[in-house]
Amino acid sequence: MLTQQRRQYILDLLQQEGEVVAKVLAQQWSISEDTIRRDLREMDKQGLLQRVHGGALPRSPALADLTTRSTLCGEEKQLIARHALTLIQPGDMVVLDGGTTTLALCQQIPASLRATFVTHSPPIAMALAQHPLLDVVLLGGRLYRHSMVAVGGMTLETIQQLQPDLYFMGASSINCEQGASTGDPEEALIKRALARQARACWLLASSEKFDTHSPCQILPASQLPDMIVSPQLSVIVRERLQQLGCRVLVAV
């Protein structure tokens, strides 16, 4: 089998099975594990998959930049955002993560709502600023351009002074074995800090993020927060999340 054929088969298998194991592929094709590992290493560099110990997982499409992510699962994100809004009460302090689902939430906020919104994302702050009755707090720090959010010690220090009612979290990947993850360690640290400070944390989770892998863990599976998901997420995955202790709201 030619190298290109082998790598295409790996991609097809990832789509069908959700994972590939280097040892199994080596035995199946009667080639060395080193050859398979070399394939996986090169495919990881090309952004085609995410290497893990012993094999590979699908690479989360949510690791793409903000502009690219805005084209993914648009209807799902609108639905999830609309459901998230029902959890907000007048007078609440609400923290919004950066991302396309929280941006969809901003765009659906009713004009009559009076509340305080906190974010470390300049694009989210700009969207919130369109609502004159909202008090908008933008956290400072070093700009992580890929996700367009502030990170670092300045951001973290300010977060530790907050006691918000709600935190709507985003993640690049969600996996019932490995938990929630994202692409940058400092971004993951900020998300953990916000989750600790908030009275209630909800992970806004569109279906393309499940059963994928990103390199930096936010929270392990045993500590996954409650989630708002779309009807497209399979019942099997929802039940597994509930077994882990998550409350799962299906946006309808």
From TrEMBL:
<dbReference type="GO" id="GO:0003677">
    <property type="term" value="F:DNA binding"/>
</dbReference>
<feature type="domain" description="HTH deoR-type">
    <location>
        <begin position="3"/>
        <end position="58"/>
    </location>
</feature>
<keyword id="KW-0238">DNA-binding</keyword>
<dbReference type="InterPro" id="IPR050313">
    <property type="entry name" value="Carb_Metab_HTH_regulators"/>
</dbReference>
<dbReference type="InterPro" id="IPR001034">
    <property type="entry name" value="DeoR_HTH"/>
</dbReference>
<dbReference type="InterPro" id="IPR018356">
    <property type="entry name" value="Tscrpt_reg_HTH_DeoR_CS"/>
</dbReference>
<dbReference type="InterPro" id="IPR014036">
    <property type="entry name" value="DeoR-like_C"/>
</dbReference>
<keyword id="KW-0805">Transcription regulation</keyword>
<keyword id="KW-0804">Transcription</keyword>
<dbReference type="GO" id="GO:0003700">
    <property type="term" value="F:DNA-binding transcription factor activity"/>
</dbReference>
<dbReference type="InterPro" id="IPR036388">
    <property type="entry name" value="WH-like_DNA-bd_sf"/>
</dbReference>
<dbReference type="InterPro" id="IPR036390">
    <property type="entry name" value="WH_DNA-bd_sf"/>
</dbReference>
<dbReference type="Pfam" id="PF08220">
    <property type="entry name" value="HTH_DeoR"/>
</dbReference>
<keyword id="KW-0678">Repressor</keyword>
<dbReference type="Pfam" id="PF00455">
    <property type="entry name" value="DeoRC"/>
</dbReference>
<protein>
    <submittedName>
        <fullName>DeoR/GlpR transcriptional regulator</fullName>
    </submittedName>
</protein>
<dbReference type="InterPro" id="IPR037171">
    <property type="entry name" value="NagB/RpiA_transferase-like"/>
</dbReference>
